[in-house]
Amino acid sequence: MTMMQVARVHGPDDVRLDDVAVPDPGPNDVVVRVEACGICGSDLGYIALGGTGAPLSEPMPIGHEFAGIVERVGRDVRDIQPGLRVAVNPDDRNIGNGGPEGAMAPFILIPDAKIGSSLYPVPAHVAPELVALAEPLSVALHGINLVDVKPDDKVAVIGAGPIGLCAVVMLRHRGVRNIAIIDREDSRLARARALGAEMTINISRESMTEMLAQAHGEGTRLGHRHVGTDVFIDAAGAPSALTEVIAVAQFRTRISVIALYKKPCAVDLFKMMMNEIMLIGSVALGRHAEFGEAIDMIVAGDIDLDPMISHRIPFGQFNEALDTARDAAKSAKVILEFA
In this structure, is residue 328 part of a structural domain? Predict the structure, then answer.
């Protein structure tokens, strides 16, 4: 029996590389050899929490942003061949999100694999670390779609972490040019500008409201000042920022919350009612079309995605990679590479 190492969460702040058997495909399954896997903020959250919040009956595998090559196929699989390079949509099996499989491993089983659902073919010339970005890019795109962003909208992205950077990329892909982004780290804001943000706002020394008023205009309604921002994409999960957004939002502002809020957040419902503010959460399920659109954008190569990736670290240096990903001042997207 051939063995491999898989990253699995055993409890709060307890993640280990466990020795497990390399999977064999069932009749309708495929085994993918992982080439690259991104470390997501949710992976770090699962490690800190000890899983998804429910008691673990067995260790939980992690890793859901990945690309690889089909290694083996089940006997009844007809339209997928070994050697096919693919991105994998993790949703169907909750890969790395509480399901039985996780992609922080050299090989992963994809049960009931289907092209256009779980597997998305990509040309061999596209770098695997870029293909692995399809998952977070489609997360951002789903949140953008929920608030019906148009090319002439004035958009502010709160948070320049990996999902905020993905939002900038997908807004540009959709033709939006008037993009502001807010964060506390200059290094992350510099990446956002390189990806296409027109204005960067460091709220450790600048007022978000004043800077947005400069970028998007301002006005008054019912005696209250507002900024001219049409859409806010919340990729930060900071209650103080969301409170400020609602306080200065104009009539019929749309707000998409992609961020993970770890605690309940007070919301001014009077302001929301009086200004008909749309506030919607986005968990990015049912995103097959958006995943495919993200793949097409990556393959087209019209937007340089390199500024999104701050580190490429071999899987053998797993703990170093986690430490790097936890350091917001140092890292953006950290990619685990597999030999």
Answer: yes
